[in-house]
Amino acid sequence: MTPSQNQNNEEKQDQQNKKIPYHFGEKLRSVREHKGYTLKVVAQKAGVSESLVSQIERNHVSPAIDTLLALADVLDINLEFLFEEYRKERPVTVIRSEERPSMFEDDIIYEELARPADSAKESSFESYMLKIPAGSHTHRGSYGHIGREFGIILKGKARLTYGTREYLLNEGDSVSYSSAAPHLVENVGDTELTAIWVVSPAQRFIEK
């Protein structure tokens, strides 16, 4: 094989590797070697070819689920061990300051800071940069709802009405509470009130 052909084969192999979404090879090989099994023994017990096991261990191919289950059974591997890094990793979502989606409630602006994850409804949360003109107040919590809320005042002066109680909040103050009781945030200052507000689980009843 010429150097040119060898380079082409390596490039093709690299392209194939990039298409493989999951890499179990290192873990499978590590467990196999720790148990003192040869490739041939594992292949025979799993009912697959020795070549296939070798390729899987080198992450050259992604095994079919039945093959993976067979190998895990032969090596006595817990599937949680194989998938743990994929279970823990989560995509990172960045919302640029100039690209925040804005939602409105009359004259109040909710700039979205964090988008709820559809796959985690119970543990999901929504977060907003809340902008309330002087003399205005929120309506979204007037009847209460499930979950909890957290807020911090960045600029201005607010009054939180929670049930029958009122709390005056100044710049830098933070507050947290159960969302079950009726609640609203009012701007009692002379300038626009700016705050960060977090609600969990996400309610999504402010539309874009």
Written overview of the protein:
It is a single chain. This protein is rod-shaped. It has helices at residues 3-19, 25-35, 39-46, 50-57, 65-75, 79-88; strands at 102-105, 108-114, 126-132, 148-155, 158-162, 165-169, 174-178, 183-187, 193-200. It has 6 helices and 9 strands. It is of the alpha+beta class and 208 residues long. A hairpin with a 2-residue loop joins strand 5 and strand 6. Residues 1-20 have low confidence and may be disordered. The protein has a 6-stranded antiparallel β-sheet, with no helix packed on it. Strands 6-5-8 form a 3-stranded antiparallel β-sheet, with no helix packed on it.
Helix/strand layout:
Blueprint: H1 3-19, H2 25-35, H3 39-46, H4 50-57, H5 65-75, H6 79-88, E1 102-105, E2 108-114, E3 126-132, E4 148-155, E5 158-162, E6 165-169, E7 174-178, E8 183-187, E9 193-200
Antiparallel strand pairs: 1-2, 2-3, 3-9, 4-7, 4-9, 5-6, 5-8
Summarize the structure.
The protein is of the alpha+beta class and 208 residues long. The protein has helices spanning 3-19, 25-35, 39-46, 50-57, 65-75, 79-88, and strands spanning 102-105, 108-114, 126-132, 148-155, 158-162, 165-169, 174-178, 183-187, 193-200.
Binned, the helix content reads 25-40%
H and E string: HHHHHHEEEEEEEEE
SS field, number of helical segments: 6
Inertia-based shape:
rod-shaped
Uncertain regions spanning at least 5 consecutive residues: 1-20
Strand fraction equals 25-35%
- According to DSSP, the number of beta strands is 9
Termini Cα gap: 61 Å
Integer average pLDDT: 83
Q: Nearest-angstrom radius of gyration?
A: 28 Å
* Structural category: alpha+beta
Strand order of the largest sheet: 1-2-3-9-4-7
